[in-house]
C-alpha cells in the first residue's frame, strides 16, 4: 500500500483540499506500465534515397518518411528509430551494408559530435548538386513562380579553413562522447573550450582541432585552455553562472589582421587579476593578434551588444579589403563569414543589378554597407537601410574610408523606415538590392517595394524557402529573370541564392 496525494477544487469557494487516498499495488503497477515507453522499431537494410532539411538524409519505408543524419543517398543501412510520428520518423544508422559512391571520408575528429559540418560524409561535388536541387525545389514548390533555367551553383574555392569568424565557449562541464562514457573513467578536470552540443545549452564539447578556420584558431584555443589550467583560472558554469572565462571570438581578415575578444565574468578584484593574466599571455604568446579585446559580462547570456568592449592591446578594429575597397570590421560588426566567397556573391549581385551610373539604388538590410559600397561607383545614389544602429555607424565609416559621397544610410526597423513617405522623400529607386535575414522580408516591406516599383530587384537570400515565399508575393508585378545559387558554407546544407526580378512590361 502507498498513499497518493491528490488536489481537488471544492465548491464555489474554489478552495483546494488535499486528499489522501490509499491505492493498491495493482493501481501502482498499472500506472508504471502506462508510463512505459513504447519500444521503437529497427528498420533493416534500408536504402537512403535523398537529402532533406537541416543536413539530414531521407529514406522511405512503406508510407513512412524517415529522416537520418550522417548518411548519404546510396547508403544501405539498418535504422534504429528514435522518434516516430504518424507520417514520419527520425532514426540513426546503426549498421552499414553498402556505402554510397557519393560518400567521402570525414576529415574532422569531432565529426558527428559537435553538430557542425554535417555534410563531410558527402563529396563536395555532390554537396553542390544537392544545394542546387534545394534551390530549385524551394522556388518551384513554395514559390510556384515561373523560372528561367537556373544557373550552375558557384562553388567555394576553399572548402576548409574558409571562415573568418569563430566563437568558442568556456565551460566547466565538458560533454563526454559515448566512447569516453564507455571507458568509465573519472576525470579530474571537466573543463571544455569549444562548441555547444546541439540541444544541450550547458554542455560544451572540448575542441582540439577545428577545420573551419586557419590553424591559428587551434593554436589560440588550445594555448589559452592550457594556460588557464596551469593558472587555475575557473571556466564558466552555465547553470550557476559562476567562473571567470566565458567565451572567446576570433576574427581574421584577408589583410592578415587578427582580432581576439574574450568575455569574462568579473565580480571582484581577483577575477580581474585572473582575466588580465590570460590577456597578457595572449599578448606575449601570439603576436599575430593585432586587436586584443575583452568584455566584462556579468549577465546570464553571452550577448554583448549593449556592453563596453575594452581594447587591451593593438587596434579596436580590423579591416577587410575587396576590389581595393576597405571595410571596417569591429567586434560587433556583421561581415560575411566567408570573405573570399562573399566577394563572388557580391559580384553576382552587382552583375544582376546591371548598373550604368544613372540609377538610384536602395540597399535593404545593408549591414555595414558592404554591398552599398561595392555598387556605389556604378550608381548615381545608394541608400542603405539597416536595423542595427552600430552597423550603420560602421557603414558610414566605410563610405568615408572609400571616398564615396553618394551613399546615405538610415537605421531602424525595415518595415518602419521603408514606407511610402520615405520613398516620396528620397526618390523612387531604379534598383532595389535586398539581403534579408533567414526569416525573409516582412509583408509590409514587400508591399512598399511594390509601391516603389523599381525596374529591377536583386534578392540575395540565405534561405531559399523564405525567398520563395517572398517571390510569390512579388510575382504579380515582377518576373524572375535570373537565378544563381552560391555556396558560402561547404560541408553544411546551407546555400545562398541570388535572384534577379524584372518589372513586368504591362505594369
Terminal CA distance = 81 Å
Strand tally is 24
How helical, in percent, are the residues?
Answer: 25-40%
Number of H/I helices? 12
| Low-pLDDT windows of residues | 1-26
Task: Describe the main β-sheet briefly.
Answer: 7 strands, mixed
Helix and strand composition category: alpha+beta
Strand content: 25-35%
The CATH architecture of the largest domain would be 3-Layer(aba) Sandwich
Please give the CATH class of the largest domain. Alpha Beta
Radius of gyration: 27 Å
Write the CATH fold name of the largest domain. Answer: Rossmann fold
Give the strand order, joined by hyphens, for the main sheet.
11-10-9-12-13-14-15
Return the domain count.
4
The overall pLDDT, averaged over residues, is 91
CATH superfamily of the largest domain: Vaccinia Virus protein VP39
Global outline: globular
Summary tags:
seven-stranded mixed sheet, alpha+beta, 24 strands, 507 residues, 12 helices, disordered N terminus
Describe, in plain words, how this protein is organized in 3D.
The chain is an alpha+beta fold and 507 residues long. The chain is built from twelve helices and 24 strands. The model is unreliable at 1-26 (pLDDT under 50).
Topology:
Layout: E1 2-10, E2 15-23, H1 25-35, E3 42-47, E4 50-51, E5 57-61, E6 64-68, E7 76-84, E8 88-98, H2 124-143, E9 165-171, H3 178-183, E10 192-197, E11 200-206, H4 216-230, E12 245-252, E13 258-264, H5 269-285, E14 291-296, E15 310-314, E16 318-322, E17 325-329, H6 339-353, E18 360-364, H7 370-376, E19 381-386, H8 389-401, E20 407-411, H9 414-417, H10 420-426, E21 431-434, H11 443-452, E22 456-461, H12 464-474, E23 478-486, E24 496-503
Parallel strand pairs: 6-8, 13-14, 18-19, 18-21, 19-20, 21-22
Antiparallel strand pairs: 1-2, 3-7, 4-5, 5-6, 7-8, 9-10, 9-12, 10-11, 12-13, 14-15, 16-17, 22-24, 23-24
Helix pairs in contact: 2-12
Amino acid at each position: 500500500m502507498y498513499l497518493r496525494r491528490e488536489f481537488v477544487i471544492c465548491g464555489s469557494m474554489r478552495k483546494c483540499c488535499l486528499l489522501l487516498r490509499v491505492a493498491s499495488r495493482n493501481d501502482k503497477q498499472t500506472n508504471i506500465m502506462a508510463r512505459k515507453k513504447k519500444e521503437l522499431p529497427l528498420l533493416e537494410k534500408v536504402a537512403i534515397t535523398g537529402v532533406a532539411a537541416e543536413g539530414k538524409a531521407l529514406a522511405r519505408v512503406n508510407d513512412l518518411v524517415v529522416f537520418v543524419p550522417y548518411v548519404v543517398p546510396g547508403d544501405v543501412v539498418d535504422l534504429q528509430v528514435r522518434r516516430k510520428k504518424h507520417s514520419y520518423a527520425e532514426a540513426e544508422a546503426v549498421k552499414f551494408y553498402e556505402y554510397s559512391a557519393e560518400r567521402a571520408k570525414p576529415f574532422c575528429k569531432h565529426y558527428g559530435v559537435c553538430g557542425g559540418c554535417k555534410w563531410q560524409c558527402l563529396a563536395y561535388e555532390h554537396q553542390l548538386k544537392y544545394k542546387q536541387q534545394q534551390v530549385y525545389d524551394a522556388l518551384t514548390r513554395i514559390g510556384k513562380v515561373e523560372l528561367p533555367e537556373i544557373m550552375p551553383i558557384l562553388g567555394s574555392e576553399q572548402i576548409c579553413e574558409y571562415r573568418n569568424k569563430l566563437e568558442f565557449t568556456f565551460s566547466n562541464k565538458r560533454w563526454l562522447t559515448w566512447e569516453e562514457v564507455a571507458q568509465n573513467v573519472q576525470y579530474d578536470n571537466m573543463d571544455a573550450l569549444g562548441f555547444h552540443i546541439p540541444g544541450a545549452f550547458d554542455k560544451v564539447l572540448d575542441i582540439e582541432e577545428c577545420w573551419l578556420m586557419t590553424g591559428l584558431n587551434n593554436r589560440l584555443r588550445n594555448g589559452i585552455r592550457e594556460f588557464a589550467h596551469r593558472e587555475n583560472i575557473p571556466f564558466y558554469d552555465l547553470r550557476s553562472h559562476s567562473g571567470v572565462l566565458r567565451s572567446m571570438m576570433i576574427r581574421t581578415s584577408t589583410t592578415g589582421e587578427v582580432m581576439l575578444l574574450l568575455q569574462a565574468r568579473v565580480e571582484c578584484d581577483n577575477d580581474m587579476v585572473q582575466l588580465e593574466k590570460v590577456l597578457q599571455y595572449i599578448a606575449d604568446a601570439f603576436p599575430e593578434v593585432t586587436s586584443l579585446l575583452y568584455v566584462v559580462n556579468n549577465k546570464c547570456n553571452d550577448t554583448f551588444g549593449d556592453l563596453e568592449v575594452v581594447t587591451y592591446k593593438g587596434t579596436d578594429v580590423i579591416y577587410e579589403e575587396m576590389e581595393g575597397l576597405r571595410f571596417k570590421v569591429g567586434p560587433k560588426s556583421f561581415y560575411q563569414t566567408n570573405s573570399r566567397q562573399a566577394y563572388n556573391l557580391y559580384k553576382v549581385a552587382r552583375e544582376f543589378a546591371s548598373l550604368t551610373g544613372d540609377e538610384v539604388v536602395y540597399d535593404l538590410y545593408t549591414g555595414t554597407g558592404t554591398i552599398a559600397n561595392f555598387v556605389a561607383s556604378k550608381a548615381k545614389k545608394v541608400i542603405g537601410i539597416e536595423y542595427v544602429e552600430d552597423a550603420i555607424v560602421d557603414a558610414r565609416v566605410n563610405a568615408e574610408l572609400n571616398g564615396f559621397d553618394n551613399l546615405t544610410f538610415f537605421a531602424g526597423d525595415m518595415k518602419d523606415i521603408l514606407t511610402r513617405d520615405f520613398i516620396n522623400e528620397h526618390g523612387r529607386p531604379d534598383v532595389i538590392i535586398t539581403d534579408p535575414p533567414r526569416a525573409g522580408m516582412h509583408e509590409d516591406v514587400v508591399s512598399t517595394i511594390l509601391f516603389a516599383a523599381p525596374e529591377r530587384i536583386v534578392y540575395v537570400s540565405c534561405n531559399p524557402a523564405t525567398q520563395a515565399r517572398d517571390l510569390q508575393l512579388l510575382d504579380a508585378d515582377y518576373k524572375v529573370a535570373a537565378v544563381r545559387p552560391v555556396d558560402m558554407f561547404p560541408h553544411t546544407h546551407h546555400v545562398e541564392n541570388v535572384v534577379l526580378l524584372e518589372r513586368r512590361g504591362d505594369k
